[in-house]
Protein: aldehyde oxygenase (deformylating)
Amino acid sequence: MPACLYVQEEDRLRASPFHLPVLISFPVALASATMLPFPNISEALGRNLTAAETVWFRYSAGMHDFWLYAHNIVFLLLVYTLAPLPVALAELSRPKAIHRYKIQPKIQVPVADVLRCYRNVVKTFVFAVGPLQLLSFPAIKWVGIRTGLPLPSAWEVAAQLGVYFVVEDYFNYWLHRALHCRWAYEHVHRVHHEFTAPVGFAAPYAHWTEVLILGLPAFIGPAIAPGHILTLWLWFVLRHIEAIETHCGYDFPRTPTKYIPFYGGAEYHDYHHYVGGKSHSNFASVFTYCDYIYGTDKGYRYHKAQPVKLREQNDADEQYGEMTNMSGKRD
Ligand SMILES: [Zn+2]
Ligand SMILES: [Zn+2]
Structure:
């Protein structure tokens, strides 16, 4: 059996800054060639493929990198549709069982509002997030996101995801804080704050301009530490799940994210929505360190320091007094 690899397979073996040394030199030399000087991929790698690598090779070898990258759009839509469902269904079917974990227990967001929110977000996905993803493909290629073999190690993936989360959190903090200036809030950010008691489906509910603005920091980490496209997929999925969790409206005990150092969580971001347009607190999207360093968590810490009874009384007097209905949305 003639066992030469064609250019398409060379694409799958393209090197990146994190590649093993054996693969660093030959893809460059072969950029204009039609075949690789190896009888098969195992010889090119110097070892047998792992099961995961075999699956990846079979799936991706015949697919252009553009379409691999475009998977992100499908993943984001799937995660947005499925991840908020468990809490939303539990709230509908067993509200008493989870009521004690509800952060703003007096607010019940009507199903009609959730459905309208879902429709709006899907529209934003189609007309803003999708095009942003597709148009950013040349940049993704330019920074060196790779699609080939070998697959990244778990350690490499974890290290890169750590960088992505910290970098995105920092830039997101400043952009979100800027969106709270009077003009930007009234014209752009106000939409996201319509839900004073957020629900999971409201995580990406925002003006399309905000979706694009706050989407950009998600690309800075991958530009600084480019990795495999699988890592990139995972990054967007995890960041999306994190946003849905912090907007879910419940502070469940023993949530795995509670064990992440400096992680904000649902209660932390819920307070930002609770205060609404007047909010000068809890701007960070993932961690708490930016708000702590720049002194924008003082309102939240004061709120938390109050005895529970007084806090509940204030919640009733201050927050709900401002609201014109019980939907968790400001009109
Ligand atoms: Zn805000
Ligand atoms: Zn929010």
